[in-house]
Amino acid sequence: MALALTLSIAGCANIFRQPVPIETASKATVRGLTSIRYYPLTDPEPIRKMLRAAYFTETPDSYETLPDGTRAYSYLSVSGGGSDGAFGAGLLNGWTETGTRPRFKVVTGVSTGALIAPFAFLGPDYDDILKASYTTVDANRIFIARSLLSLLWAESVTDTGPLKDLVATFIDSKILAAIAKEHAKGRLLLVATTNLDAEQPVIWDMGAIASSKDPKKLELFRSILVASASIPAVFPPMMLNVEIDGKQYDEMHVDGGVFFQSFFIGALIDLPTVISAAHPDYTGKAVQRLYVLRNGRITPDPKQVPRGLGSIAFRAIGSLLKVSGINDLYRLYLSCLHDNVEFRYIAIPIDYKPTTEEQFNEAEMKRQYAFGEQLAQKGIPWLTLPPGYAPK
User: Where on the phi/psi map is residue 186: left (φ > 0), alpha (ψ -120 to 50), or beta?
Assistant: First the structure.
């Protein structure tokens, strides 16, 4: 009802802003920093250059050497999914406990996956932080619902001040220093947001931000994580200050899930060719593996839908997001075929029955975390084909 009211009164009030002029938008920089963000749909060459450099400058810490001498590159893509991120967090920690969790060359994250990604990137030493961030929170630590009256001049139905505080609690200068150290080894931490003004996804090189000398890099790092998780209309957008020819403007960034629930770099470059070119003296075998953590379901969840604006909208939007996640699995699978990358993914199994549909319910998040952790401890049942796909 609150969302419907927001839409109906959208023209009643506007919040002042200084938007980037459309004709010069491509020149905008954040805090004067270059090579920290990319627009893969319209200008892919800069990100290709960055990706190539990550392989040409990598140290042995970027990959693993298997007992037979094979070099193994492991990649992780963590999807959106709101409070279902508790499942992915539990899975990662349970994976650690088996002793088989790899060190990832590249970690990508969208929405709740963006909040998980820094700790997945840094590895098992940060499992306790990852656990705390998904098992000690509830809705009150994520958002504050706005009053109906305040919606007249608001841009969302909630205020995410608590989420910003939560991100600040877990992401500090020590975390950035650790990420910068790994970035120097040729490892990549990438997070996606949506630039609503440009109507494009933006991929941020979080390791490059952490490695910069900008005195406000911690503030920028946190803002991008919050932006990636800012569901439009439900959560307020993050307004990022940018500069063009010495003039100050703002960009409106929201949830990266507007464009995709999960992403990978394979569609942007020819990975086998780049790896071979980066290591001309290595004549052995190199394998690549992409692991996708789908923080949500990929199977139908039949239920009777009451006649009503809220219930119909909630069901339809939820189904749309689920199918978006499934479509991403197809896209990632085809990308892996192109680059000879082994494709593996896991989603919340059909036999898991939540106790509530309420988002950010602490008790349910603890259940999901424990379920993911136990699933991994038994051996993750990775799937290798997108739902419904039958190869020749």
Answer: left
Tokens at 170, concatenated: 């877990």
**DSSP structural state of residue 29:** B
pLDDT in tens, 217-254: 999 999 999 999 999 989 999 999 999 999 999 999 99
Residues forming beta bridges with residue 252, ordered by sequence position: 239
Alpha carbons 9 and 4: distance in angstroms, whole number: 9
Neighbours of 144 (CB within 10 A): 13
Match 């094979």 to its residue by tokens.
70
**Residue 8 CB coordination number (10 Å):** 10
Tokens read off for 112: 């709740």
Burial pattern 306-319, b for ≥16 Cβ within 10 A else e, equals eeeeeeeeeeeeee
- pLDDT higher than 60, residue 12: no
Per-residue tokens: 12: 């009643």
- What gap in Å lies between CA 225 and CA 219, rounded to an integer? 10
